[in-house]
Design brief:
- Pfam families: HTH_62.
- It comes from Aquincola tertiaricarbonis.
- This is Recombinase-like domain-containing protein.
- InterPro entries: HTH_62.
- This protein is mainly alpha-helical and 74 residues long.
- The protein has one domain.
- The chain has three helices and no strands.
- Helix 1 crosses helix 2.
- The mean pLDDT is 89.
């Protein structure tokens, strides 16, 4: 591995493999970005249309999205 290769590893900060829920959430977020959604309100709307609920089974809101992303980032 060359010294600059460490910057090319997209999983360098990962502590464990993602859970199935995290994979599904990431895929839904990527699909939203690919569809041209780049604002929080649009992202929340896209997540709700994708039928991927929050871990507690609720619909997404801007508030619970922020809280969930912060939880996942911790």
């Amino acid at each position: 591995m060359q010294p600059t290769d460490r910057y090319l590893d997209p999983h360098q900060a990962r502590q464990r493999p993602p859970t199935p829920y995290e994979d599904l959430l990431g895929d839904a977020i990527e699909r939203a970005f690919a569809a041209g959604v780049h604002d929080l309100a649009g992202l929340v709307e896209h997540l709700n249309r994708s039928h991927l609920a929050t871990p507690s089974g609720q619909a997404w809101t801007e508030e619970n999205y922020r809280a969930e992303i912060a939880r996942l980032a911790a």
